[in-house]
Amino acid sequence: MVPDVVLFVVASALAAIFGSRWCAAVVAVWTLGITVALALYALIDRVAGWGAVAMLLASIGTLGATLTLWFGSLPRQWFFVGPFGFRPAEDRPRSRHLLQSLGQVVVFWGFFLVVLPAVLSWIEMRLRLEWPALDRPAVAWAGGLVFLLGSATGLWSMISMALVGEGTPLPAATARKLVVVGPYRFVRNPMAVAGAVQTVGVGLWLGSWSVLVAAGAGCLVWNSFIRPDEEADLRRRFGEPYIRYCAEVRCWIPRRARRGRAASTDSVVSM
User: Fold this and answer.
1) N or C: fewer beta carbons within 10 Å in the chain?
2) Max CA pair span of the chain
3) Cα dist from 135 to 63, 146, 214, whole Å
4) Which pLDDT score, from 0 to 100, does residue 2 have?
5) Helix-helix angle 137-163:190-206, to 10 degrees
6) pTM reported for the whole predicted model
7) On the CB side of 143, how many CA atoms lie within 13 Å of its CA?
8) Long-range contacts of 228-233 (CB under 8 A, 24+ apart)
């Protein structure tokens, strides 16, 4: 491991001194390779668990620094390609939007709330990184209640988006009308809030600290990389009503609009 560390330090120093994109790329590729190798070794022999976690964090930081050096900033546009590009939903019956939204919920909830937490929990157990304080019945039951709260909010948001906004949660079929009713009276993106709450609930239910970390990381990614472009698209399409709505309703912390009646008059604004 000593030659690896020496190469990592030397290449990092060269990248910092000369601003070399290629040196940064070498560091990123090398770090990712070492991370994968160490992770496989740790999963097979059930040792070096925290070393694998440390290398994963180093890889994330190195990759972020490399992308910034190559593109001037982290390329947010990569999030909005294919089915994640912003396009208003087609003009169709609201029942079709609701059915399409339910299908999206099944797919996304199945992956982010079942498959991914199960994998993270298994990795924790395999690497012997469990946190005993979370392995208690009271914590699990609290997680179940938190999950139900988040799920109810997510379904309420999805139904409001489909029936009032005439769209779906997916950007490729986003709402045709501005929605500021239902849970949107309290936070600007209740689906993101609901997803974070659901993930925390799953983490508590499983007793998995890594799932809780994933919930926080998901919030940071959404707030830093998705929210700016999403809100820019909404400002472009809905203009002044959306700007007034943002002035009244926070993004994360629930608070009802001070001008509740005024906001309700703008609750449905056509494109």
Assistant:
1) N
2) 67
3) 34, 16, 18
4) 43
5) 160
6) 0.84
7) 21
8) 228/76, 229/76, 229/77, 229/79, 229/80, 229/86, 230/86, 230/171, 230/189, 231/188, 233/86, 233/174
